[in-house]
Please model this.
Amino acid sequence: MVKQKISAVIVAGGKGRRMGGNIPKQFIKINNIPIIIRTLLHFEKSGKIDNIILILPKKWKKKGINLLKKYSIKKVFEIADAGRTRQASVYNGLIALKKQNPDIVVIHDGARPFITDRMIQATCEGAKKYGAVSDVIKLRDTVFEKKKKRILDRKNIVRLQTPQAFRFALILNTHIRARKKKKWGFPDDSSLLLSYGSKTAFIEGDRRNIKITDREDLKLARAIAQSFGSRKL
Model:
């Protein structure tokens, strides 16, 4: 059986306005390792991932290149420019990936550094089987819809995380369709795909796989890093 080629697109195009400070959040360090490097190292070490497209703000590409060298990350073959929205950034990454023409692409937020090898493997296998897959977390809290003044059944609601994985041609063509229609507001790639009538499978994520957005998240991230004990990441 021919091995399918799997690429990753790591989205780190944010400017970190909610975090404050002088540098984007993806370059902030947790236990002396930048967040983006923590994320990339999981994909670098994964036996499932063949190569990586990294997406960064244009003015921070040089810093990104220096960090890749410092931490010996060799799977990143190109740094694509961030767009005005996350959706635009992913589109730029997918277009840059066309020359590699992978079978599967894993799309992951660079600000989620606590991804595990299990999650990478599961999303890759899920995409091979179903064509599209997303990590999700079940809700524990009661959910109240204010406008309609009703409590929703949380058994029917999940929180989407990344990684999300897709057959490359499927997600690329869906992005192209959305771009032609000037639909820019999708917060992640599974929601984009679902809006065009395609199906996606859901697999269990990890509550530690948080997206670091503000200072409170950063405090939690440092606590999670400590909880990993002897594991460096």
